[in-house]
């Protein structure tokens, strides 16, 4: 089982890098919002964009590949519910990143470039981007829960709890996106434009 254990270690290590770095950026964004600091918020969004292709995509792909290897080597089946849910969650979060977060981050960068610095529009769109990212983070943590708990169709309470957490995460994310501008723009100067989150 040395091969399986090696794949398991690499799978977990890649997931820690992927989820941990994303979690840190969400904490920094939250701090910027709480401090009413649009310059710091835009800096976090810039970091998200810069790390997208250099950290998040490679770590997520490594997590995926090592996970697939574990299924093949460990005798798991792609018909196991927890594997189906894990793959669905992975595909959903990858799609959110590629089709929603990245284009919106690039649009924010274009707004900052167009306006010559941070504007109310860029901050509002940045807050929306962070809110969507938080929904994505909830989804990622649920994938970890599915991997750890390995629920079957018989685990109705566990599946219900996971669904409830997902629903609450979506509602909380959408609510925070509509909460309005919590970051002042009046005292800001020009800042580096986020290229892609």
Features:
globular, mainly alpha, 5 helices, 197 residues
Q: Give me the Rg, rounded.
A: 18 Å
| DSSP strand tally | 0
> What is the count of DSSP helices, taking H or I runs of 4+ residues?
5
- Relative helix content: over 70%
Determine the mean pLDDT. 90
Percentage of β-strand residues: under 5%
What's the order of the H and E elements? HHHHH
How many domains, in number, for the residues? 1
| Helical/strand content category | mainly alpha
Description:
The chain contains 5 helices and no strands. By secondary structure, it is mostly helical. It has one domain. It is globular, with a radius of gyration of 18 Å. Residues 186-197 have low confidence and may be disordered.
Please write out the topology.
Elements: H1 2-34, H2 38-74, H3 81-115, H4 120-149, H5 156-177
Helix pairs in contact: 1-2, 1-4, 2-3, 2-4, 3-4, 4-5
């Amino acid at each position: 089982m040395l091969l399986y254990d090696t794949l398991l270690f690499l799978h977990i290590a890649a997931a820690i890098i992927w989820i941990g770095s994303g979690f840190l950026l969400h904490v920094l964004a939250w701090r910027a919002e709480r401090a009413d600091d649009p310059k710091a918020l835009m800096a976090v969004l810039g970091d998200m964009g810069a790390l997208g292709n250099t950290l998040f995509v490679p770590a997520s792909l490594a997590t995926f590949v090592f996970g697939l290897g574990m299924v093949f080597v460990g005798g798991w089946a792609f018909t196991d519910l927890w594997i189906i849910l894990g793959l669905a969650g992975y595909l959903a979060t990858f799609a959110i990143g590629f089709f929603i977060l990245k284009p919106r981050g690039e649009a924010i960068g274009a707004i900052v470039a167009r306006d010559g610095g941070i504007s109310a529009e860029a901050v509002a769109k940045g807050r929306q981007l962070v809110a969507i990212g938080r929904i994505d983070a909830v989804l990622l943590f649920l994938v970890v829960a599915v991997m750890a708990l390995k629920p079957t169709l018989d685990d109705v309470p566990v599946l219900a709890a996971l669904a409830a957490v997902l629903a609450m995460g979506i509602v909380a994310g959408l609510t925070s996106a509509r909460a309005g501008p919590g970051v002042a723009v009046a005292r800001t100067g020009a800042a580096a434009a986020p290229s892609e989150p």
